[in-house]
Amino acid sequence: MEGQQPFLIPLQGMIMAAQTQLLYGAGLGLRRSFLPELVEKPPQNIDFYEVAPENWITIGGKYGKLFRAMTECSTFVCHGLSLSLGSTDALDEKLVLAVKKLMADHGIKLYSEHLSYCSNDGHLYDLMPIPFTEAAVYHVAGRIRRVQELLEQKIAIENVSYYAAPGQEMPEIDFFNAVVEAADCDILLDINNIYVNSINHGYDAENFLKAIPGQRIAYGHIAGHYVEADDFLVDTHGDEVIDPVWKLLAKAYELFGVFPTLLERDFNIPSLAELLRETATISTIQNAWTIRHQKQSA
What we know:
Blueprint: E1 26-29, H1 35-40, E2 48-51, H2 61-73, E3 75-79, H3 93-106, E4 111-114, E5 117-119, E6 123-128, H4 134-151, E7 156-158, H5 172-183, E8 186-190, H6 191-201, H7 205-210, E9 217-222, E10 226-229, E11 232-234, H8 243-256, E12 261-263, H9 272-297
Parallel strand pairs: 1-2, 1-12, 2-3, 3-4, 4-7, 7-8, 8-9, 9-12
Antiparallel strand pairs: 5-6, 10-11
């Protein structure tokens, strides 16, 4: 679509971008097995929770009631798994509208998705990398804008981990920034994904971070990964966060100020107490950088 600029006019009626601070503090990905415990004794150091809407749209019975009890007293964000923004399949507008209803029913204000695809005439059950090309920028940006039109609000797009880059025409950071600019969307900044990609593809993680448009950050993710080899990491969300990733999170707070950050753990899940210990580390780093920024501006 050379010569056309179909995605550069700001959408009307949108809520403001990341500056609205729909979230704050430290968050945790909600696991269904923890619901009874969380409802009975809500932890003091969890400021918001994240759920995959696909897993909750049709939920009823006991867990539906527990989920309702949680959303009535806690802040939630929806993080999609299957919208497949980079696919050439037709956009699943029925899913988008179902997510919109779930969010309205539970007072959820923010929806995020991955900058990837997971379908090709059927679901692939994995998040596949989008080619880093100019054509892909406009294709994906157009789909994001359509989602935002249907939801009547901006969404946050996550930078993803990837293990190959077929047909690459531009660096990852240039592709990511071009998509969010053309789509006029917010960012879900995944710190672990930056670190994993920096090892696997041999780039400087801090330089990547510095190039992010910080004013678009709605919230962040942090997680653990699996070390296959010194130069090959796998983004499993199945281990504790390691020190270099914590340090990269602190660098992000130094660059952009403190933003809401959520702990992801999707595999090899420990006790709730252990997860709360890691979320407490998020809070500790956030508090330290809040104090530093206050001193610097005094």
